[in-house]
Specification:
By secondary structure, the protein is α+β, with helices and mostly antiparallel strands. The protein is built from one helix and four strands.
Length: about 150
């Protein structure tokens, strides 16, 4: 008696590989988008926490520290492994207004301090509408907005 052995044909294997490839093409961008949204949310949470620490410092000293090194050692890193950026604006003897972040109308984002992450690309510019600043996570309106610069 002759027994025929069951096996997959090359066509069946090619169809299975094509289906797996199509599913991967759909799933990978969705997963990448999910990871980026999670990193953005983490940066928003961490900026809110750092801002709270800065406000406590102001309550104790009636001024903001010159750098984050006064409060943190080592400096906190954003989800992309870059240090958070901080600038005390209202400092003695003169306000530090030359380097402040600005919105699309060129108005300063904050009057107390700037605090932000350079975002995924690790680069930034002063004005939020600039290409390198669109992915930054920023604190604006003296803390009433914390989020993606492109959403401000």
């Amino acid at each position: 008696m002759f027994h025929r052995q069951r096996a997959f044909t090359i066509i069946e294997l090619m169809i299975a590989v094509a289906i797996i490839g199509a599913l991967a093409a759909i799933a990978l961008p969705a997963y990448s988008n999910y990871v980026e949204r999670a990193r953005n949310a983490q940066a928003v949470t961490e900026i809110a926490g750092i801002a709270t620490s800065l406000k406590h410092y102001w309550e104790d000293n009636r001024q903001y520290p010159a750098s984050l090194n006064v409060l943190f050692n080592p400096l906190p890193l954003d989800p992309w492994k870059n240090p958070y950026q901080y600038l005390a604006i209202d400092i003695d003897p003169a306000p530090n207004t030359g380097a402040v972040r600005k919105d699309k109308s060129l108005h300063p984002l904050n009057s107390d301090f700037d605090l932000y992450s350079n975002g995924k690309d690790g680069q930034s510019q002063k004005q939020l509408t600039a290409a390198k600043a669109r992915d930054d996570i920023v604190r604006a309106n003296n803390g009433s907005f914390i989020g993606l610069a492109s959403d401000h």
